Amino acid sequence: MPEVPELRMRGKSGRGSRLAILIALAAVAAVSVAVVWISGPTAVDRTGTEATAEPVPPPAPEAPTEPSSSSHAAGVQEVVDLPVEDRPLTVDLVEVFRVGGGTGTWQEFTDITGLGFDAGGNIHIANAPGFGELAGVIVSPRGELVATFGRMGDGPGEFRLVGAMVALADGRVVVSDVGHAGYHIFGSDGEFERMVRFAGGQPSLDLTSRILWDGDEGLRILKADRSGNLLSRMPQTTSVSVDSTGGIISTRRSVFDGPRQVERILLDGDEARTEIVVTGWDPPGPTRLVAFAPKFLFDALPGGGVAYSDSSAYAIRIADPAGRVVRLLRRALEARPVTDDIRRDYRERRIDAAHAALSEGLERTRGLVREMLEQAASAPRRLRERRIRNNIENVRFYPEIPLVDDLRATWEGTLWVLRTPEDGYPSESVGLGRLAGSPAPIDVVTSGGRYVGTFPAPVAAMPVAFGPDGLVAFVEIDEFDVPTVIVKRLPDEVR
Description:
By secondary structure, the chain is an alpha+beta fold. The strands form ten sheets. A five-stranded mixed sheet has the order 2-25-24-23-22, with no helix packed on it. Strands 1-18-17-14 form a four-stranded antiparallel sheet, covered by helices on one side. A four-stranded antiparallel sheet has the order 3-35-34-33, with no helix packed on it. The protein starts with a strand and ends in a 6-residue tail after the last strand.
């Protein structure tokens, strides 16, 4: 059970400080692991004595081997073996419009955290001016402003700590808000309609003794289906305990792997209802922070079905709305066992990425997060280097590099399958010095099992969002870190 060491703050546990504490916890979660390992312990106990650093654990044994049955066809109605040889695609994407780049008040984007189309071709943009914030924009298929929605605050339709934004087919927008423990629903005109509480209610905010916060809604992956509901997965669950005994607030945070399940979230009442749609293959042992652990990827299909990938193999499962796997799409690509050379190269790349991330973070963050990064950067160079290396060199490895790195479905239900680079590694979302994705081939396959072709690595780019009539959206960042949303149109053959 991985844990983040205690963070202690002096203060009272009055009502006015509860929200601030929760927001601080969320901010600390983003960087606390890195800071603890880089700069060493900083907590001070009640007597003022510096806390003792925990020793670096010895390297853990390698993760268990994935069973050959992880891509088996038992219980599947149809198995489709796709061609092994690539058929290169050379289609051109036509640009429709672009917005952003600071060329107008409503186009002054800071950080694009979400994009989604509705059935009318309008694109909904989640812009985050600051941590946990959201300023929403709705843009027409011609690139014109339709509406804006949402702002920070405590009133109806105002946000405290935003998680994700999802555009529904009928034009409405759903925004998850951890601070309000619920989903805000806005109309296609940007007007607030109602709020739906998270399933199970909100965590207790009583800090007079202890708080247990299970499940980090801020990290929940949300996608829309065509019926107005959400498909979701919780990639991790977090338990936070807070103790305010003696006027000192102490927190301890434990992080666990989330269930490898896709849930359907129904928003038809005052409180959300959830039902499990599919349950994926569960690798033995924890996979969080294990290099090359197989991802659990999914996307919604027209009609209520789900496409998902849950193993290291190239095996895409197609499930009907009831969760029954009706088709398995396989491609017999050569597996990549993890060798000593791969381990060595991966560690060096992570170490370089950790140094780069620390420098970049100091330039782009502010407030509490920036203070923590400055604290890490101010540690003696030798100590900082040793802690970075100790952390990364003790990483555990899955025995095989997964073949699939991402999975998306077009509006029509065709699958875009991003493969792991043949000479690279999967993209990572957590961990000190986590690696970003590098160019890799994208296969285009219909959910019925017809292989259309492959975009070669040098020209392949996975859209952030797919819309009707072949619309797709990308985000481009310029040299000043200013984002621009670019909308293009796909030709019929790859929709």
